[in-house]
Amino acid sequence: MEILELLKALILGFVEGMTEFAPVSSTGHMIIVDDMWLKTEDFLGKYSANTFKIVVQLGSILAVVVVMWKRLFSLVGLYKIDTEESSKQFNLLHVIVGIIPAGVLGVLLEDFIDKNLFGVETVIFSLIAGSILMIIADKFGPKNPSIVSLDQITYAQAFKVGLVQCLSLWPGFSRSGATISGGVLFGMNHKTAADFTFIMAVPIMAGASLISVLKNWEDIDMNHLSFYIVGFISAFVFALISIKFFLKLISRVKLMPFAIYRIILAVVLAVIVFL
């Protein structure tokens, strides 16, 4: 594979890693950058290019594992986190309950999403829709959240956030934007909602990547393996940088600045695409 093509993988990994955990939609940004500039579909093929956009997220997921390993290991009994009441400790069942809605719906709609929603035009509308939800969360969420740590989340709240996460199946809506907004509306502070979002991301994104790879295996050329590897490593490195920064930032600025950015981006894209 040529150096120029590997550079494209590096750029897409950068876009993925820097945007995955901000509520701006990493997949939406990759679709925009790729479809309007890099055009990897020309040499990867449509389905392999779409699969890359999902698989590259595994680099970001590995970054979550590195940053939040204590919480993640505690879910499977490999690490003990001290809490005031062990019976209320955040556990694996919270995660399972949270990912079931999007997991089931994602499997049912996988073909439809892959064929119809991976495009700049659909991303423009999802950017706006996600912004509206984020503004609603900041404006109408509790002023004094009752849930300020993962250990205070109930199973019912985890499930309700999981329902909201279904909106993120629409590329451009943003998984973190949807789940953080849902968490805030259901009584969590922004930091706790973000922590829950990142932990839920590990199994659901790993599962989505596995399904996409298995489904499109015949369309993936092993000659393109280096492209996937470069994108994966790039996403991992830049996600490590962005996660810690975002977790500090979200408690200060909330969701509104990200919503405004999304609206501006959607307007600019609409002018370029439709005019």
TrEMBL record:
Q: Please provide, alphabetically and separated by semicolons, the GO molecular function terms listed in this UniProt record.
A: undecaprenyl-diphosphatase activity
EC number, UniProt record: 3.6.1.27
Question: What's the top EC group for this one?
Answer: hydrolase
Q: Which GO terms describe its biological process?
A: cell wall organization; peptidoglycan biosynthetic process; regulation of cell shape; response to antibiotic
Keyword Hydrolase attributed: yes
Give the membrane topology, semicolon-separated if more than one: Multi-pass membrane protein
Q: Which UniProt keywords apply?
A: Antibiotic resistance, Cell membrane, Cell shape, Cell wall biogenesis/degradation, Hydrolase, Membrane, Peptidoglycan synthesis, Transmembrane, Transmembrane helix
Q: Per the record, what are the reactions this protein catalyses?
A: di-trans,octa-cis-undecaprenyl diphosphate + H2O = di-trans,octa-cis-undecaprenyl phosphate + phosphate + H(+)
* Coiled-coil regions, chain positions: none
Principal localization? Answer: membrane
InterPro entries attached to this UniProt entry: UppP
According to the record, the segments passing through the membrane are 51-69, 90-109, 115-137, 196-214, 226-247, 259-274
Q: Which Pfam family would be a valid example here? A: BacA
Q: Which GO terms describe its cellular component?
A: plasma membrane
Q: Where in the cell is it found?
A: Cell membrane
Recorded hits in NCBIfam families, A to Z, give: PRK00281.1-4, undec_PP_bacA
Function of this protein?
A: Catalyzes the dephosphorylation of undecaprenyl diphosphate (UPP). Confers resistance to bacitracin.
In its miscellaneous comment, the UniProt entry states: Bacitracin is thought to be involved in the inhibition of peptidoglycan synthesis by sequestering undecaprenyl diphosphate, thereby reducing the pool of lipid carrier available.
Homology family: Belongs to the UppP family.
The protein, known as: Undecaprenyl-diphosphatase
Question: From what organism does this protein derive?
Answer: Psychrobacillus psychrotolerans
